[in-house]
Specification:
The chain is mainly alpha-helical. It starts with a strand and ends in a 9-residue tail after the last strand. The protein is built from seven helices and five strands.
Length: 201
């Protein structure tokens, strides 16, 4: 059982999680590859132009080309190529930059919206980095300890509910009927159950 995501007012943890997500790292990796490719193309096309913005030598010319490619990708170019081929590449690269910024914005917005709607705990697999409340000596406590999950053990289940609501715990693990009853009554609108219900035979 977790807090209802609508009751979590702070977006800061969600933003931090986005910055360290695998999807963002993939986007950054693609951007770096694109910048290197564009930088080499612009360096090759501009290095022989007498009024070109890029030095003829590879170093520091390629550094200037990388800076230009990165700035243009972020739609902040402060200088334009002088050659015809360079300008044609610049126009194509500007359109690429607009598409890249739009894609990044859409991805970030989608990720933050999903986190806001679903919360960051959706199954037992999301518990290892969280603090989970349960009653001392229960089978839930044994399960959490065996899976190396941080436990807040309390004498009564009502104290676990309080720990969840006061944000001393990120989730409560206990018998499903007990949690379902609480979620449908005192905790209605405040908490929700996530993940599958384990049945012991």
């Amino acid at each position: 059982m977790v807090r209802n995501p609508e009751n979590n007012n702070s977006a800061f943890p969600n933003i931090l999680q986005l910055f360290f997500s695998a999807s963002l790292l993939q986007v950054i990796g693609v951007a770096l590859v694109l910048i290197l490719v564009a930088a080499h193309i612009i360096w090759l096309s501009e290095r022989h132009h007498k009024d070109g913005m890029i030095s003829q030598s590879y170093f520091p010319g390629i550094f200037k080309a990388c800076w230009w490619a990165a700035a243009t990708l972020a739609t902040q170019a402060d200088e334009m190529p002088k050659g015809v081929i360079g300008r044609l590449i610049a126009v194509i690269w500007m359109f690429t930059g607009v598409l890249f910024v739009a894609y990044f914005t859409a991805s970030a917005t989608t990720s933050l919206t999903l986190q806001q709607l679903q919360g960051d705990i959706r199954s037992v697999d999301d518990l290892p980095s969280k603090v989970v409340a349960t009653t001392a000596g229960s089978t839930a406590a044994t399960y959490l300890r065996e899976h190396h999950i941080s436990i807040l053990e309390v004498p009564k289940i009502e104290q676990a509910y309080d720990a969840l609501q006061t944000k001393k715990a990120d989730a409560v693990v206990f018998d499903a009927p007990v949690l379902l009853f609480y979620a449908a009554n005192q905790g209605k609108g405040k908490v929700q159950l996530v993940g599958s219900i384990a049945i012991e035979i």
